[in-house]
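Colleagues,

Please find the record for the two-part complex below.
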Amino acid sequence: MPDEEPGTPVPPGGEDPGVVTLTIPCAPEYVGTARLTILGVASRMGFSYDQVEDIRLAVGEACTNAIDRVARGGNGSGPGSITIRSHVETGRLTIEVEDHTGNGAAADGDAQARPVEEIDPQELGALLMEILVDEVAVEPLPEGGTLVRLTKYTAEG
Amino acid sequence: METAMNLKVSPRAVDGTQVLDLEGEVDVYTAPLLRQAIVDLVEGGATHVLINLERVDYLDSTGLGILIGGVKRLKEQGGALRLVGPSARITRIFEITGLNKIFDVYATERDALAAGGR
C-alpha cells in the first residue's frame, strides 16, 4: 500500500473511485448537458439499458429540483450553479448533485401517500428519484443549497 | 447563451380532432412549449386533444406535470386528453408513477381517434 501524502482526501470506504465532475449553471437549458454526461458515465459501467435510462432521469430530476427551488425561492443573488459528481466504483455508481443556490432542502415529502393527480411536479420528481435509483439521500448544505446523493448498484455488484 | 430547444411541437387537425405531434425531449427547459401549445388549443375551443408521443425519447416530471394539467383542464371542458404511442420506456414511467391510471393511452393514433369525441 503506497504511502499517502498528508492531507490527501480519502474517499469514504477507503477506495479511490474514479470521479467525473461537471458544473453547470442552475438553469433549465443546461440540464440536458448534465443528462448527456451521466449517460456517458453510466453506459460504460455494466448497467442495463433500462438502468442507464433510470439514472439519466433521476439525475435530470435532481437538477430540475434545484432549478425549481431557485425559481420558487427567488433569493435574488442570481441562479447559482449545480455540481454533479459521479463516483464510479465496482458495482456501484454514486452521483452527488449539489446546488449552490442559497435555497433550502428539496421537497422529499410523502408524495406516495396521496393520489398521483394531486402531486405537484416537484414532488413527482422526488418520487421518481426514489423509484429509479437504489438509494436517495437529501441534505441541506450549511452554506445554503442542497446535496442530493443518488446511488445505483449494477446487477452483479 | 441561447440553447436550441430539443423539442418540436407541431399542431394539426385530423377530422376535427386537434393533434399535437411531439418530437424530442420534454424536460424542464422544453416543457413550457408543450404547456403553451395545450393552452392555445384549449383557448381556441378544443375539447378533445390527442398528443402523439411516438417520437418522444425523454419525458421528465415537468412534462408529466403538464400532461396531468392538460388532462384536468380538458376534463373540466367535458373533453379528453389522449396520449398516443409512448415508447416502452415512457410507458414504464407512467406505470411506476401510477399515472397510467389517469392517462388515457392508445397504441396508435387510429385507436385514439376511434375513441370518439372532438
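The longest strand of chain A covers residues 81-89.

Comments are welcome before we finalize the supplementary table.
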